[in-house]
């Protein structure tokens, strides 16, 4: 397919090989303005802002992907298959399912369980395990150690429903699921199908079982530890 696409106004070469992605396009805008030099905005279509700039001299892109697997499915498919992107790191928010997690804690999804039917398109006679790329995970955990930032690494849940049933979430928690979000499994499936790399890292923004929740402004701008880890990892990736 030719570029630009119906969802992305970028031309070939406008987007870096490594892209940081967030559900909220304003978080992408915040990262570009706070951390990048020589910033160029390559997308405004549907308000899904995308930017390319330099972080410590290395070319990196950041873009919004919207909410849910269908939305991230479109944007990441195009990035991998039409724009030659190699690595995508999702930097998002999540609800804590593990009782030991608190608002502001960082979780890395080495695996992403899901109740979505997105995987049906692959016509597999079984259940696909949706996992992160080790090449990114290795660099990211090393980066977090260097920055002295604690990570919680494990399985997360990619839900299709934002206002989900709490008893259902408790069942997932009993199986060792750390946190719930809405996109990682679709990202991991698209990466696997394209032969590319992906990882989802989230900051806990709410606790469904207690009702505690961070503000919208906190979600947009206060995830700086997660952003720093992602940026420092991005400049190490090939």
TrEMBL record:
Q: Which UniProt keywords apply?
A: Glycosyltransferase, Transferase
Q: Which GO terms describe its biological process?
A: purine nucleoside metabolic process; uridine catabolic process
Identify the catalytic residues: 206 (proton donor)
Name the reaction it catalyses. a purine 2'-deoxy-D-ribonucleoside + phosphate = a purine nucleobase + 2-deoxy-alpha-D-ribose 1-phosphate; a purine D-ribonucleoside + phosphate = a purine nucleobase + alpha-D-ribose 1-phosphate; uridine + phosphate = alpha-D-ribose 1-phosphate + uracil
List residues binding a purine D-ribonucleoside: 7, 181-183, 205-206
Q: What does the entry list as the binding residues for phosphate?
A: 23, 27, 46, 90-93
| Listed Gene3D superfamilies | Nucleoside phosphorylase domain (3.40.50.1580)
InterPro entries in UniProt? DeoD-type, Nucleoside_phosphorylase_CS, Nucleoside_phosphorylase_d, Nucleoside_phosphorylase_sf
Q: Where is this site: Important for catalytic activity?
A: 219
- Provide the Nucleoside phosphorylase domain boundaries: 18-234
Enzyme Commission number, as recorded: 2.4.2.1
Give yes or no: UniProt keyword Glycosyltransferase.
yes
Entry similarity comment: Belongs to the PNP/UDP phosphorylase family.
| NCBIfam families linked | deoD, PRK05819.1
What this protein is reported to do is described as: Catalyzes the reversible phosphorolytic breakdown of the N-glycosidic bond in the beta-(deoxy)ribonucleoside molecules, with the formation of the corresponding free purine bases and pentose-1-phosphate.
The protein, known as: Purine nucleoside phosphorylase DeoD-type
Q: Give the source species.
A: Maledivibacter halophilus
């Amino acid at each position: 397919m030719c570029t630009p696409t119906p969802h992305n106004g970028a031309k070939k070469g406008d987007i870096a090989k490594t892209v940081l992605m967030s559900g909220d396009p304003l978080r992408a805008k915040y990262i570009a303005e706070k951390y990048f030099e020589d910033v160029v905005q390559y997308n405004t279509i549907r308000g899904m802002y995308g930017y390319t700039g330099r972080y410590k001299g290395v070319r990196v892109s950041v873009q919004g992907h919207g909410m849910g697997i269908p939305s991230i499915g479109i944007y990441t498919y195009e990035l991998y298959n039409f724009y030659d992107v190699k690595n995508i790191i999702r930097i998002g928010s999540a609800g804590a399912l593990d009782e030991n997690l608190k608002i502001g804690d960082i979780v890395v999804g080495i695996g992403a369980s899901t109740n979505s039917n997105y995987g049906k398109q692959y016509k597999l006679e079984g259940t696909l395990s949706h996992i992160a790329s080790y090449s990114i995970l290795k660099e990211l955990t090393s980066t977090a150690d260097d920055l002295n930032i604690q990570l919680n690494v494990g399985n997360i849940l990619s839900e299709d429903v934002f206002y989900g049933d709490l008893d259902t979430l408790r069942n997932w928690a009993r199986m060792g699921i750390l946190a719930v979000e809405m996109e990682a499994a679709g990202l991991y499936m698209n990466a696997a199908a394209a032969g590319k790399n992906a990882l989802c890292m989230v900051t806990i923004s709410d606790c469904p079982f207690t009702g505690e929740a961070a503000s919208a402004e906190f979600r947009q701008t206060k995830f700086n530890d997660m952003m720093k880890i992602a940026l420092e990892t991005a400049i190490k990736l090939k």
